[in-house]
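Is this the right way to post structure tokens for a design question? Let me know if I should format differently. Anyway, here goes:
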């Protein structure tokens, strides 16, 4: 890790706040709101995520909702399109849907399949890699729609939840590890 990246890790980590017992007892939520409110650090995080993208990227995919916040500016930085992956019932046209489990429940994600052209190089961006359910479901949706997932990029990883295990043989990049 370069000194510049080490400095970014330290500043970003100091801005992520732990919220115990949210959204359910026993879960420690990682609140990135203070990081998002710090313009210079947010800009460097976006730049870092974009610089680490594996090769040319056609589409950046962000999962609802914090993946939108990070994914859209990464797409702009890369000159790529942005695809929102939404919670069930939020998209108005034909959708592909994928169910998944997360650390405190289950959910369904949806995407408009006609927004992903066959063979598009896709970078998936989200705030946290936890159990890997959201990321794995998104990989499945992108591949079902014809995209080629070339990488997954996360602000942080909760290593104790083993999310990488659900993403075998995938190019996974993380700025902060817990």
């Amino acid at each position: 890790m370069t000194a510049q990246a080490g400095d970014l890790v330290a500043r970003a980590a100091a801005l992520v706040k732990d919220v115990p017992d949210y959204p359910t007892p026993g879960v420690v939520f990682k609140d990135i709101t203070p990081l998002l409110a710090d313009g210079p650090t947010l800009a460097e995080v976006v730049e870092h995520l974009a610089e680490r993208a594996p090769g040319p990227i056609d589409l950046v995919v962000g999962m609802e909702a914090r993946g939108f916040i990070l994914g859209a500016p990464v797409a702009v930085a890369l000159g790529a399109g942005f695809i929102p992956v939404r919670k069930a019932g939020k998209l108005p046209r034909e959708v592909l849907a994928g169910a998944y489990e997360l650390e405190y429940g289950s959910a369904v994600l949806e995407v408009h399949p006609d927004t992903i052209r066959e063979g598009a190089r896709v970078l998936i961006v989200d705030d946290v890699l936890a159990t890997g359910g959201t990321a794995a479901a998104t990989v499945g949706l992108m591949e079902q729609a014809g995209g080629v997932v070339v990488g997954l990029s996360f602000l942080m990883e909760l290593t104790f939840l083993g999310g990488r295990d659900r993403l075998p043989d995938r190019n996974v990049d993380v700025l902060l590890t817990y």
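Format looks fine. Someone answered above. Worth noting: Strands lie at 17-20, 28-31, 59-63, 81-87, 96-102, 105-111, 121-129, 148-157, 172-177. The chain has a mean pLDDT of 95.
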